[in-house]
């Protein structure tokens, strides 16, 4: 392809750029390199008008060239439409090593949305995991799974890596906002975001994240902490997550892990547990709590079904179990869709004080 020089002012950034922040210091360093050695790699553009262009790949180089005071920039013009640009730009960007896992996860989501797959990041991560399990057992995929598998192949990233990125992008929005606002070297280890996504309770997820940040936990300790905090009774969770009380995760993979608290902090924790139990008695008398529990158990049941469905097949013909639930009222809902609705219902019930009579009808 021919390399041409294009006036920088005629170029606009891609609206499909997954990167949410650009490191100013890194841009300045690249600008100094451009001043000394010129631009070594041309950027990729598509023409949008008579003399206007949009970036397909190379926005960092374009920004650095502006910073270096260049009036024109070396570029390759590619004849693609907006749809192709969207896919190529997103794929090119998520392959960058310096892109944060959350940004990569969001970029992957945009690729799937461009191909007509509309799921939450967590649901998509679960489906990709399910596809890999089915393929390892030589089980057939349903049409939606086949399409998702084709898109994964097009991205050229291992399925397990895509799953981790999507899980990272599925944590609570305020956690994502807080992480992206920090300098890169102050963010928590990327894989810990994926582990946090396994905590379905948004309040517990946020308070666990805050504890990890407060104690500046490394990847291994934070991952073990997330695994353990989910197994502990609510009152003890609240005590352990109390601000300022240090904790440590000890043990090994064979014997199991446990969360330990320094001896001089034990009384503080006991007090917090005691207060927590008193509060629990008061709270549990509210009718809305019964509904929240119902939604929580329903969501847990959907999660268990998702884990088990790959093992189910017809005992007569061997055909894999359908991923569609067969409700009398909503026959066309898929298991994933039902799970997401159950999750939404639980989240909604966690933020209101009045019950929803739809879900609290007495069984006949």
Descriptive overview:
With 364 residues, this protein is an alpha/beta fold. The chain folds into 4 domains: 3-80, Alpha-Beta Complex (Conserved hypothetical protein from pyrococcus furiosus pfu- 392566-001, ParB domain), CATH 3.90.1530; 100-168, no CATH class; 173-283, no CATH class; 287-359, no CATH class. It is 52% helix and 9% strand. The protein has helices spanning 24-37, 59-67, 82-94, 101-114, 121-136, 143-155, 159-168, 173-181, 190-196, 202-214, 219-229, 234-240, 266-283, 287-308, 335-349; strands spanning 3-7, 11-12, 43-47, 53-57, 72-77, 248-252, 256-260. The strands form 2 sheets. It has a 5-stranded mixed β-sheet with strand order 1-5-3-4-2. Strand 6 (248-252) and strand 7 (256-260) form a beta hairpin. Helix 4 packs across helix 7 (159-168). It is globular and about 70 Å long. The mean pLDDT is 80.
Relative helix content:
40-55%
Order of helices and strands: EEHEEHEHHHHHHHHHHEEHHH
Derived structural class: alpha/beta
Largest sheet: 5 strands, mixed
Number of strands: 7
The poorly predicted ranges are: none
Topology:
Blueprint (H helix, E strand, L loop, with lengths): L2 E5 L3 E2 L11 H14 L5 E5 L5 E5 L1 H9 L4 E6 L4 H13 L6 H14 L6 H16 L6 H13 L3 H10 L4 H9 L8 H7 L5 H13 L4 H11 L4 H7 L7 E5 L3 E5 L5 H18 L3 H22 L26 H15 L15
Parallel strand pairs: 2-4, 3-5
Antiparallel strand pairs: 1-5, 3-4, 6-7
Helix pairs in contact: 1-2, 3-4, 4-7, 5-7, 7-9, 9-11, 12-13, 14-15
């Amino acid at each position: 392809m021919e390399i041409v020089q294009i006036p920088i002012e005629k170029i606009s950034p891609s609206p499909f750029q997954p990167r949410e922040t650009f490191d100013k210091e890194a841009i300045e360093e690249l600008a100094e390199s451009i001043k000394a050695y010129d631009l070594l790699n041309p950027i990729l553009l598509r023409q949008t008008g008579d003399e206007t262009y949009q970036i397909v790949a190379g926005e960092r180089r374009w920004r650095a060239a502006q910073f270096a005071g260049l009036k024109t920039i070396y570029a390759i013009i590619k004849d693609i439409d907006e749809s192709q640009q969207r896919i190529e730009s997103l794929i090119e960007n998520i392959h960058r090593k310096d892109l944060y896992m959350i940004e990569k996860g969001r970029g992957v989501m945009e690729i799937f949305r461009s191909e007509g797959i509309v799921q939450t990041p967590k649901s998509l991560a679960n489906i990709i995991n399910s596809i890999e399990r089915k393929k390892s057992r030589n089980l057939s995929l349903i049409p939606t799974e086949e399409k998702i598998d084709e898109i994964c192949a097009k991205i050229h990233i291992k399925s397990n890596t895509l799953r981790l990125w999507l899980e990272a992008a599925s944590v609570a929005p305020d956690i994502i906002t807080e992480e992206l606002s920090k300098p890169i070297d102050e963010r928590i280890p990327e894989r810990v975001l994926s582990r946090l996504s396994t905590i379905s309770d948004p309040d517990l997820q946020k308070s666990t994240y805050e504890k990890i940040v407060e104690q500046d936990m490394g990847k291994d300790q934070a991952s073990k902490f997330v695994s353990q905090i989910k197994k502990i009774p609510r009152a003890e969770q609240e005590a352990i997550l109390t601000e300022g009380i240090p904790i440590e995760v000890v043990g090994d993979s064979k014997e199991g892990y446990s969360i330990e608290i320094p001896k001089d902090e034990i009384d503080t924790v006991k007090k917090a547990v005691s207060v927590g139990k008193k509060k629990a008695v008061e709270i549990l008398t509210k009718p809305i709590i019964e509904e929240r529990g119902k939604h929580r158990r329903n969501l847990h049941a959907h999660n268990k079904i998702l884990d088990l469905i790959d093992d189910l097949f017809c005992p007569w013909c061997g055909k894999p179990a359908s991923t569609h639930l067969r409700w009398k009222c909503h026959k066309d809902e898929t298991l994933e869709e039902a799970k997401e609705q159950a999750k939404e219902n639980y989240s909604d019930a966690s933020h209101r004080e009045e019950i929803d009579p739809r879900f609290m009808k007495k069984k006949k």
